[in-house]
């Protein structure tokens, strides 16, 4: 991990879209996603611009060593937010996901968050480990896209 730290957050901008799209279409990322299909760049960029413009969405990019290492997306629902996380294929296995999950913002657009929730496929062992190491707790099984997944929660103090 020391070879790419220290990490820092930056707000995602439109020019981050193509790189995040490449990460999203990586075979391992797709296997661990709730939507496992390939996504075209034009479709992704339309979606990405919409997320950037949405006041209930926060997109952050983790950077270290002069490179983008991963991204999180928080979708606010009241004082809670659901998280989605992607680690760059080149940064996997280096603690980036745990760092990202351990250094989440407590506010979104001025609103204080109380809870962050995640839905993780049970066979996505790397994500399960990262969420647990970052202080998330298993809450229950939930249905997502026709399958049973873990729901993790973290209370923000």
Structural overview:
It is globular and about 35 Å long. The chain is built from five helices and nine strands. The chain is α+β, with helices and mostly antiparallel strands and 157 residues long. 28% of the residues lie in helices and 37% in strands. The strands form two sheets. A seven-stranded mixed beta sheet has the order 1-2-3-4-7-9-8, sandwiched between helices. Strands 5-6 form a two-stranded antiparallel sheet. The relative contact order is 0.16. The longest helix has 13 residues, at 41-53. Helix 4 (96-102) packs across helix 5 (125-133). The mean pLDDT is 92.
Please outline the major beta sheet: 7 strands, mixed
Strand share of the residues?
A: 35-45%
Q: Give the % helix.
A: 25-40%
> How many DSSP E strands?
9
Distance between the termini: 27 Å
Contiguous helical run count: 5
The radius of gyration computed from the alpha-carbon positions, rounded to a whole number of angstroms, is: 15 Å
